[in-house]
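Data card: per-record layout.
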Amino acid sequence: MTDDRTVAPEGDEDLRPPTDGGPDDVEAAAAGGRGKGLVVAAIVLALVMGVAWVAVSAMGKGDLGQDPFGRAAPDFELPKLEGEGTIALKDLKGHPVVLNFWASWCGPCKEEAPILAATERQWRSQGVVFLGVDTEDKRPEAIAFENTYGIEYDSVFDPEGQLSTLYGVLGYPETFFIDAKGKIHAKYVGPIDQETLDAYLAQITAK
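The structure for this 207-residue chain is written out next.
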């Protein structure tokens, strides 16, 4: 009696027809998919951590932190936005200083500009110096901005934003209130209102 079943010769296992894929094959494929997903997740996490590290490093460059109360205001000397010459912070020592970081393209800066302009005129006779820092901007647009809002006090020109980095500024506007000894009393983030501005001015002019 003959056996009609076909038997593959030894060494020819690769000629056998492929299986249809049982439970073991499905589980293996799923495990492979999970493995790829974990690799992708790890890469994304590494990228996110890298971006966060760069951001934290940038914030730390100014060495002021986000609450610089009581610290000495970092000195600087920059060209005037309009006219010739430079302005150095050290030359203002003995005067309370309101240091405002702004840009002509900054929407919130437009909100506070009239308040700053009017308040500076009221306090200049008391020896308070308002100083703007026009940052990451173009000079013609910045000068037009000051003319539009009637700003009479000086600004320095910081087109590359180097002073913003030194002071740890993360957005515009930001305002620093510095007493006559050069110490920072407060930092205000965002467009300042009249009540808050007056309160901080009272602090840095108190004897």
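Known properties of this structure: Helices lie at 23-60, 107-123, 139-148, 162-166, 194-205. Residues 81 and 139 are 7 Å apart (CA to CA).

See the next section for split statistics.
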